[in-house]
């Protein structure tokens, strides 16, 4: 098996990075017209900066107001607009769904794509995949594209205005990266691009985990006061770049499969991807029989930033045996990344690990108190 590592062509991050968007795009040889797929809040925050930086760098641009769902219908609408405008580059600005839509449109039209995330809530911005939903918001499919984004531009001035819960969810998604990457590498399974992992990808995944432990709580405190600090910059990089490169080029395992399982019960719908993934990490550690010291390190971190460590914290305080069975079955469905674990995983094993994770997490909160 060949080793494959993939990444965006360019990653730019910093305070007021949006002011350099045109310049950064021009530096890559991109040319306009540019169609920007922007959520309402991204447009409100960024349109002033776009009106300066894009014409300055020679880009004509137009904004498509994102409909709210990365659905087949929305992708089709943006494609029509892109063709009418004769767009030669697509820019996504906003949360994950706006970026996923921009990426899907660019892939279909064979155009370069730029991601401008306005939150650091997941590791999706750097990846070469989109999650497609129905217009009602139900998961439909994951689409893999040939190429990662040409440019990912992260403006930490914008991230600093975002709700704390979203940054914390991004830490939950990033928390899984190292544990899932290590499992994939140890089992010599294929990464998200169909190749073996590289030492580079694994090292980035490890750095991602270390950055969370070192900077997580301080970065969260900074964001709560809308302050940009070196620690917040490092944490945003961990959530966005390190986690993104780590998961795509090393692979996913039980934690993300358990997340997918949790989505099978509607009670978890109000909870974010990264919140459910964080609980999935605990389940993975138990499934793998990892030592107590690792479990304790993860519990301490999760509780310190307010990530869920119990079922009650993801809406499942009253989980019935039937609900648990549904979660376990969905987690172990054919094709799930849980099968990247180096042993066969049955639904019963997942159900046991979920119950145990909840008990250990509850005990931890009971002993150490809820996050302050
Ligand atoms: Zn994820």
Structure description:
Helix 10 packs across helix 13 (347-368) and helix 12 (321-331) packs across helix 13 (347-368). The protein is an alpha/beta fold. The strands form 2 sheets. A 6-stranded parallel beta sheet has the order 1-8-5-4-2-3, with helices on both faces. The chain has a two-stranded antiparallel ribbon with strand order 6-7. It has helices at 21-27, 40-56, 72-85, 96-109, 156-159, 164-186, 199-224, 230-250, 254-262, 273-287, 292-305, 321-331, 347-368, and strands at residues 10-14, 34-38, 61-65, 89-94, 113-117, 129-133, 139-144, 151-155. 53% of the residues are buried. It starts with 9 loop residues before the first strand and ends with a helix. Helix 4 links the parallel strand 4 (89-94) and strand 5 (113-117). The model has no long low-confidence stretch (mean pLDDT 95). The radius of gyration is 20 Å and the shape is globular. 53% of the residues lie in helices and 11% in strands. The structure holds zinc ion (ZN).
Task: Output the keywords.
372 residues; two-stranded antiparallel sheet; 13 helices; 8 strands; globular; binds zinc ion
Question: SSE layout and pairings?
Answer:
Layout: E1 10-14, H1 21-27, E2 34-38, H2 40-56, E3 61-65, H3 72-85, E4 89-94, H4 96-109, E5 113-117, E6 129-133, E7 139-144, E8 151-155, H5 156-159, H6 164-186, H7 199-224, H8 230-250, H9 254-262, H10 273-287, H11 292-305, H12 321-331, H13 347-368
Parallel strand pairs: 1-8, 2-3, 2-4, 4-5, 5-8
Antiparallel strand pairs: 6-7
Helix pairs in contact: 3-4, 6-7, 6-8, 6-10, 7-8, 9-10, 9-12, 10-11, 10-13, 12-13
The structure holds zinc ion.
């Amino acid at each position: 098996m060949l080793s494959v590592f993939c990444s965006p062509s360019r990653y730019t991050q910093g305070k007021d990075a949006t002011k350099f968007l045109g310049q950064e795009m021009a530096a890559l040889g991109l040319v306009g017209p540019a169609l920007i797929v922007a959520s309402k809040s991204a447009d409100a925050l960024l349109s002033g900066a776009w009106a300066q930086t894009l014409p300055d760098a020679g880009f004509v641009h137009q904004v498509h107001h994102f409909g709210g769902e990365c659905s087949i219908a929305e992708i089709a609408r943006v494609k029509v607009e892109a063709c009418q405008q004769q767009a030669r580059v697509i820019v996504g600005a906003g949360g994950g769904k706006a970026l996923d839509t921009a990426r899907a449109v660019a892939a279909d039209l064979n155009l370069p794509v730029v991601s401008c995330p306005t939150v650091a809530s997941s590791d999706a911005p750097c990846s070469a995949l989109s999650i497609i939903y129905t217009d009602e918001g139900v998961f439909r499919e994951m689409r893999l594209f040939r190429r990662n984004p040409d440019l990912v531009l992260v403006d930490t001035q914008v991230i600093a205005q975002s709700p704390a819960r979203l940054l914390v969810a991004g830490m939950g998604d990033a928390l899984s990266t190292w544990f899932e990457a290590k499992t994939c590498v140890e089992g010599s399974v294929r990464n998200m691009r169909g190749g073996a992992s590289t030492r580079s990808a694994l090292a980035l995944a490890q750095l991602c985990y270390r950055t969370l432990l070192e900077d997580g709580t301080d970065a969260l405190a900074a964001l709560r006061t809308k302050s940009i600090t070196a620690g917040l910059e490092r944490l945003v990089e961990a959530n966005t770049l390190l986690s993104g490169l780590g998961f795509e080029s090393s692979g996913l395992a039980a934690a993300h499969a358990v997340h997918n399982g949790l989505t099978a019960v509607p009670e978890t719908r109000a909870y974010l991807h990264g919140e459910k993934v964080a609980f999935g990490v605990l389940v993975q550690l138990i499934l793998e029989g990892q030592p107590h010291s690792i479990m304790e390190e993860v519990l301490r971190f999760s509780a310190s930033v307010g990530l869920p460590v119990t079922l009650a914290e993801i809406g499942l305080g009253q989980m019935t045996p039937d609900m648990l069975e549904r979660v376990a079955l969905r987690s172990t469905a054919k094709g799930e990344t849980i099968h990247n674990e180096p042993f066969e995983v049955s639904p019963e094993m997942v159900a046991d690990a979920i119950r145990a994770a909840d008990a250990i997490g509850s005990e931890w909160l009971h002993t150490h108190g809820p996050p302050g």
